[in-house]
Design goal:
With about 200 residues, the protein is an alpha+beta fold. Helices cover about 55% and strands about 10% of the residues. The protein is built from 11 helices and 4 strands, in the order βαβαββααααααααα. The chain has a 4-stranded mixed β-sheet, covered by helices on one side. Helix 4 runs antiparallel to helix 5, helix 4 packs parallel to helix 7 and helix 5 crosses helix 9. The longest helix has 20 residues. Keywords: Cytoplasm, Transferase. One of its GO terms (cellular component) is cytosol.
Amino acid sequence: MSKEDLLLLDFWVSPFCMRVKIALAEKGLNYESKEEDLFGGKSELLLKSNPVYQKVPVLIHNACAYGRSQARFWADYIDKKLFDATCTVWRSTGEAVEVAKKDFIEVLKVLEEALGEKTFFGGETFGFVDIVAIPMASWFYASEKFGNFTVEAECPKLSAWIKRSMQRESVAKVLPDPEKVYDFVVMFRKMQGIE
């Protein structure tokens, strides 16, 4: 499959786009990435390819949209619970931060229990659930800073899984530096008037 066969409509800080990049790298598939301006004006290609949600990622194959990633149907818990819990910590202020932090840690503990003693969620092989979950790890630092806790102290097995996953070339190449994500969150909070 040539690079021209796959086009990814992308946004650099989106954990959902990171998943697609990791999955494509794990499969050894080349692709072209087109960065979308989600704040300034979405491209006609994005609006045409995903008219209902108008969100990234969109993976286009031979000019035909594949549709939403298969990860979304199986990874409902991660998409709905983990993403929201992660963001709620840094979107909160005052006493609400403690409530958000507690909820976030509960979600992490559920994932840690699912991981158990395994190397990866699927066992010894990095797979589907790992690809769905690992992009969120780049956002954890921001939640830790605003929530005044560490994932490592609260969920050591999950923290070890993050470190193992980060050793994979496909993951290390895609996930942004957590401090850069934190800087993005600080900027986003200012844009939203959250102080």
